[in-house]
Amino acid sequence: MFLFYELAVIPMYLLIGIWGTGPREYSAMKLTLMLMGGSALIMVGLLGIYFHSAAPGGIFTFNFVEISKYQIPIEAQRFFFPFLFVGFGVLGALFPFHTWSPDGHASAPTAVSMLHAGVLMKLGGYGCFRVAMFLLPEAAHEMAWIFIILTSISVVYGAFSAVVQKDLKYINAYSSVSHCGLVLFAILMMNQTALNGAIIQMISHGIMTALFFALIGMIYGRTHTRLINEMGGLMKVMPFLGVCYVIAGLASLGLPGFSGFVAEMTIFVGAFQHPDLFHRVVTITACTSIVITAVYILRVVGTLLLGPIKNDHYLELTDAKWHERLSVGVLIFAIAAIGIAPLWLSNMITDGLHPIINKLGLVSMNLLGFNF
Asked: Would residue 28 count as lying in a domain?
């Protein structure tokens, strides 16, 4: 897993550094250095798990299933869990290690941005869940409150940062920080509802952000600018792209009928199942991101698509071509399919979660004083 994790990260340097725009060398180097720093932490954590993966006299292994059968000593779990969660969290845009993401998004070509946010960043959440929490569950329960605070900051800070941006790619990049923070937030809640929501959010955000970056690339290819204050009235000249952008925005802010609503509601319902004051407060704090998201989405829609046309050159612009309509239409169909009929996806996820839920559940019972 670590080998292919690295193989997924390394090409981003070349894709952004060679084919990117703006300060592409700076963005590519910043992305690479921060993700490689995270990878160094992961390597320490993986080696720690390996050397504690067997009973005395047993055989050490890197196999997930075999390691999960043996209880790693709690002292080792406490030491290595932060290495793994922070290491994978860097790729998942965990605050305060998220700063590589907006710069990388803004300088990357359209297709690379779609892959970057839609696929690559999900490896961070997967690693936190599949490695850190599944293999070190006792430490996960003890230290979850620290990372819940950090992920709550990610969710709200990312949304507030998107409000003040004027570049379309930076707006979507900070939106991704907020939504990916919500994935880590849900994982740390450690109950079936929230974990189910985390996986749906990964899939939903991957589709939504790919749609956003595709539309931004199509608009930029016609207007040659990404600054929203230089554009206006584009709905009149590019109605298809304008309507698709509105749909993507409504999905992002969690409108019922789209995948974003299903994912976020599942996460917040799962998080609110914890009866203690701390979890209730952070859940309500994270919920405020929905309102903040509505602010920047509606602001962009109003500035970019509505109002008078600010440049006569825009009157000559053409709407989406057939292949652009096809690609955008497929993504919108996927968003609507999850939003209207989510149970087929939820049931599929639930079946795969059972082994991890059982392990986390047993640990929870042990911490409460029950013996098995």
From this structure: yes
